[in-house]
Amino acid sequence: MEAEPSAKGTVRESELARTAHRVFSEHASALVLVGEPGSGKSTLLTAVTAEAKRRGSDVLGCAGNREELALEYGALRRLLKPLLPQLTDLPIPHRSALSRALGVHSPDLQPPDGNEDTFTVARAALDLLLMSARRRPLTMVVDDLQWLDARTSETLLFVARRISDEPVSLLATVRDGSTCLSMWSAFEQLILGPLSDEAAGHLLDTQPVVPRGWARGQVLRLAEGNPLALVELAHAAAKAGTSMLEGGVGVAPSVLARLGEVPADRLTALPKATRRMLLIMAVAEAPDTGAAMSAASASDPDGGIETWSAAEDAGFVRLGGGGVRFRHPLMRSVVYGAASFSERREAHLLLAERLESEPDRRAWHLAAASLAPDESVAVALVETAERARRRGGYRAAAAALERAGQLSEHGWLRARRWLDACEAAMRAGEPWWVESLAVKVATTTDDAAMLTEAVQRRGWALSVTGRHEAALSELLPLARGKIEGAPMMALDALVRGAVVVYSSGDEVSRRLALGLLAEIPVDASSLCEHVWARASCDPFGHRRSVMELLDRAAAEVDGEPYRIKLLGGAAWVLDDTASAVRWISSALEHLRTVTAVGSDVVLAQLLALAQLDAGAWDAARASAGEARRVAAENHLETVEWAALYVDAMISALRGDTDEARSLIEQAAAGTDVSERRALGVRAAMVRAAVAAVEGDRSMEFESLRGLFTAGPDPQPVHYHCSFYGVGDLAAAAVRVGRQPEAAVVVDSVERQLGEGMSPRVRLIVGRARALLCEGDEAEALFRAVVEDPLAEQWPFERAVVTMEFGEWLRRRRRVGDARGELARALTVFERLGARPWVERTMGELRACRVLVRGVEDGPDAAQRLTPQQLQIARLAATGLTNRQIGEQLFLSARTVGFHLYQVFPKLGISSRNQLRDALDRAGR
User: Fold this and answer.
1) C-beta separation of 435 from 471 below 8 A
2) Are 296 and 304 in contact (CB under 8 A)?
3) pLDDT of residue 263
4) Burial code of 364-394, b = ≥16 C-beta within 10 A, e = fewer?
5) CA nearest to 637, candidates 679, 579, 574
6) SS3 call for 823
7) For residue 289, is pLDDT > 70?
8) Are the C-beta atoms of 210 and 204 separated by less than 8 Å?
9) CB atoms within 10 A of CB 751
10) pLDDT for residue 718 is more than 80
11) Strands 323-326 and 317-320
12) HEC states along 449-467?
């Protein structure tokens, strides 16, 4: 079998689910997987084999072998070997025929009667299989149909046509384009095409060494969606350096050899004209193929038809559809790697000549033809980069500028172009690329200004990849050294350092940053930078003055996305949530009109956080999903952590505790939360929300109490995030009878923040005071919160207080007043899909003698479920986790969680422990 990457959970999950469904259905017969070498066919066979054994089926398997094509029934013997002891159960004529065909000696064999044919052997093989299947279901897996001997192929076809109503299934693979495909045309075929860009990226991210920057793009380009090529190219780049990716030189032959393709000898045997035409096609990128075809065929009177036909006969290309394409993605690399540099240079220059009207492609071909620095080519690449930047193609711009630097004739220009490449790579969200470029600058120039800029870029790369201490050790000393001579450079370093200070929550670094900020004068040109740096380092200390700066900056901002991003981030930290959503959305929308989606992943992460607070949970999930995808691809750990937190918190608040727990543990895995306090505090808040839904009151309280230090004067673990858990801490304390401990924390919070409280924190502290209050004065505290018009910015938090006020009123037998508060809270919870809160509020309304009809009251509740939702619900009702359900149904745990999220409201429940009763009531 081909050695291929795993399918489940990564690149072929949908194909695996479809294959398993077909193979294990009641009327399974034969399914043929069709794909090019390395596309994942054998991986699917392996996964289905494991699933068949788990289901209790017997599995028979064999693989075709090119070297045994002439060995009649050789593959059939390997397939039936486990059943040979049962040969004696066959009638003697069938036993004799099959034994002779398989080369099995038996003392009672009948001599051939002269009329024996392949039909008798095939009939005997079928009888043997059916006898075995009566004891236990049988699954046959056959790899590489194209290499089976003719007799085995005929027998398998005979069997496949007769097992549709039997407990026998056949799963086989065949290479695309094989002549034997026509023999199996009557059976269902599943085509395994190239992976999507997203799936290919996911597969790359699972490799031991993940390619980054230009190397990542090259791997994706060369592999063309072929899973094995992706894995092998990534491995080769990690082992021998990215130079291996220049056309795939040195990589493709070894990969193709593993696939049973050894094209080197066939290539050298081709006529020189054919090899030249193939090389011209090999150096061409997809947009250049028209020019390449024209150039390759120009010197041939018949347009190169005979020459191309020779290349097709040798197995390198396929002709048709008005063009020529390589038969396998790595065939291009074989051709390119077999040519000398002078031959490759000639081909690149020929294409450059043909691409006069395509300056970007021409520049790249000229660069590929250059060995020594060439300023004219470097300038052409700089111009290419500028055009790419205007289109929003920051990765392309960074690659062009990096190559331009390599071809620059002067050291200063080389460093300058690499710094420009740093900026483009940073906008593309490529921190590792930025870091490597910054190191190149540092070893190329001694210009102080450029070295400072390189440190700033490297500091950004360190910060977004979670290396906080290293980032601060570069950015804060840089800011200190530049305050007197270059205060704007110092401010820029502090702006970047503020992100790290916030994530780490380190008090020493925070005080140092604030001290440095105080020494930098505020002027109109730096308002946004000052607002962001001050807000993120001290959101409550001088809130009034920082809010004034925010208002001034908002009035004067010029629409530049970077400055709007700073404003939006500052507004979110300062709890001006509505403005944060508006500004960040505006900046992101502007970027999307001129750049590719995901070019500024930090914005998507910030927007997700702001939308979570604003009660736009579905939008927050979409933004977090975008941020997670790009962040995971580029190891932007800080961004990925924040996005995972958003997803986890929404899952917890909506009652999907398994999903929430999985997501937050994924975010915190391998992380020292003492060095990343923002993440640690948020993880604790998610765990508390999960515990609340699951009824673990002690865990809920301990998680929330851990947001503050112990002792008589509790301090926040994180100078910003910790304060937002005070209200939940008070509620948990009431449930476990530990109100005095919570009161100590609330007292400390009020002393520390004083007038610096934001309206949102004032709402949260007011809720805590109301819950901890023992007398009737709690009503005034509740009303101060629920009637505050500013609280509309945070609908979920306001609805929670409104519901708790309703509960308080009901306990005092003020049922009429309670109904109004509870009804208002219920409306918000239902809109947000916060099922546990919906259920709790409905319970309170019923206690107020309000008839609340949920879908659980209808006799046809389960009829609202799709077949897959019903199947998942039944499994969940037995106590299986999302992961265990996914393993049975070949779905991801996340997909299972999504279906359960849709099931709960249809059944009128809020948690999985209610599933069994809900299904029983519905008779399902």
Assistant:
1) no
2) yes
3) 57
4) bbbbbbbeeebeebbebbbebbeebbeebbb
5) 679
6) helix
7) no
8) yes
9) 9
10) yes
11) antiparallel
12) HHHHHHHHHHHHHHHHCCC
